[in-house]
Design brief:
The chain is of the alpha/beta class. Helix content is 26%, strand content 24%. It has eleven helices and 18 strands. The chain is globular and about 70 Å long. The N terminus is likely disordered.
Length: 427
């Protein structure tokens, strides 16, 4: 029977401080090239007027019209592997993303997703300042980090956000680029609803009494004082949903009257996923701010138009900003291999079950929402035997992958490299 434990991913933010030295207590995560791809098979002859396409280490169309553009996806486990780059073609999107677009501009194309294996266990760090409420942060510091990225979860979330499929991929990508990553948690994550708004999430008002601002400043100060992270290193923040609102607030702190109370809350750039941000933060900030939005965001509290307008207002004030909409994407058989522990055979079976249940159109795009699919699987578990056999965590993450493909309110890592390039532009 399908376990009724499906939950959508919550918001999360990353902050990165660059500095010298490795992390004491860090498990010495292994970064190594993934096994080399098998030799490319000879491409099958393409129909007249078409270009034959071979994809190694990923999937894509077998052929496409000359002068068109096609999408390709790597087939990696997001828990332990990243794509370092795509080779073999003229990529019209970032060639370091796991999902890229290539121009069909030659008689035949052989495209390869080059991979790297990264085995990391995040350190669990307990902290309580400035209150007596103990919270958990997840941390990894590579040798001689170039910066620190703070990852902030969303409503109802915790520091475990960094362990979710899409967030973990982005964190591994950041680590591969030399960044330290830190995933703290909101005071309300453990203390409950402090502001009586009915939800456990980050407190985003730009006030001197904001417990979360005090807590984050104290956490960063303690990491500086212990020598884990040198003071004065570049810091960046990334957040999802309520976490996205919080990172916009963090970027604004330096320009408020409370700046002196929070000396560690200084950020070179921030990225808000799936949140438009509060008006006071947008009106105040001078920090470069990117909004990465889901094209079909289904959260009633999120306005994509509001985020686009906020980005435009920053640009008009001379503050670097961009706002982009992530579109829905089709299902391919190996998609669910991204989820930790899901095999290629299981992924293909999951895709077959979804097709048999009528959840996809002829272009392999979902015709039902992720919530509707949960309801369908719950009402008729016999139609989804592979899904039912997965662990509760895997079931949740499979549903989250569907939400990403539909471009619903969900963290996505298709723009992990773009996020890191945004940060790298502000050293």
């Amino acid at each position: 029977m399908v376990m009724m434990t499906f939950k959508r991913a919550t918001m999360t933010i990353f902050v990165v401080l660059s500095g010298c030295g490795g992390s004491a207590g860090d498990n010495g995560g292994v970064l190594a090239p993934a096994p080399g791809p098998a030799p490319a098979p000879a491409p099958a002859p393409a129909p007249s007027g078409q270009t034959a396409i071979t994809v190694i280490g990923g999937v894509g169309p077998a052929n496409a019209p000359f002068s068109s553009r096609v999408e390709v996806w790597s087939t990696i486990s997001a828990a332990t592997e990243i794509v370092t780059r795509w080779t073999g073609g003229n990529f019209t999107t970032d060639d370091e993303e796991w999902h890229a677009t290539v121009a069909v501009d030659s008689p035949a194309l052989t495209l390869t997703a080059e991979r790297q294996t990264i085995n990391i266990n995040f350190e669990l760090l307990s902290y309580s300042a400035p209150t007596a409420i103990a919270k958990i942060a997840r941390l990894h510091i590579p040798p001689s980090p170039r910066g620190l990225i703070l990852l902030l979860h969303g409503t109802g979330g915790s520091s475990s956000f960094i362990e979710r499929t899409e967030t973990r991929y982005l964190a591994l990508k950041a680590i591969s680029k030399g960044y330290a990553v830190l995933a703290p948690e909101a005071e309300e994550s453990v203390a409950g609803d402090l502001d009586n708004d009915g939800k456990a999430r980050w407190l985003v008002p730009l006030s001197t009494g904001n417990t979360d601002l005090r807590s984050l400043d104290a956490l960063l100060a303690s990491l500086n004082a212990s020598g884990r992270l040198p003071a004065g290193l570049p810091q960046y923040a990334l957040g999802m949903s309520n976490g996205g609102s919080m990172v916009a607030a963090l970027g604004a702190v330096a320009n408020t009257s409370a700046a002196g109370l929070f000396p560690r809350l200084r950020f070179k750039a921030v990225v808000s996923y799936c949140a438009q941000a509060r008006a006071d933060a947008v009106a105040t900030t001078a920090t470069p701010t990117a909004w990465f939005l889901c094209g079909n965001d289904d959260n009633a509290e999120v306005s994509n138009n509001g985020a686009l307008a906020n980005s435009a207002s920053l640009t008009a004030r001379g503050v670097s900003s961009v706002a982009l909409l992530h579109a829905a994407t089709p299902l391919f058989d190996e998609r669910f291999v991204r989820v930790a522990g899901v095999s290629t055979t299981q992924s293909r079976a999951l895709a077959a079950e979804l097709r048999a249940a009528g959840c996809l159109d002829a272009d392999q795009r979902f015709t039902q929402t992720s919530s509707e699919i949960v309801s369908l699987a719950t009402a008729a578990p016999g139609r989804f035997p592979t899904l039912a056999a997965l662990t509760a965590t895997q079931q949740r993450d499979v549903i989250s992958q569907i939400a990403v493909m539909r471009a619903e309110h969900e963290m996505f890592s298709d723009w992990a490299s773009r996020t890191l390039r945004w940060f790298a532009a502000y050293p």
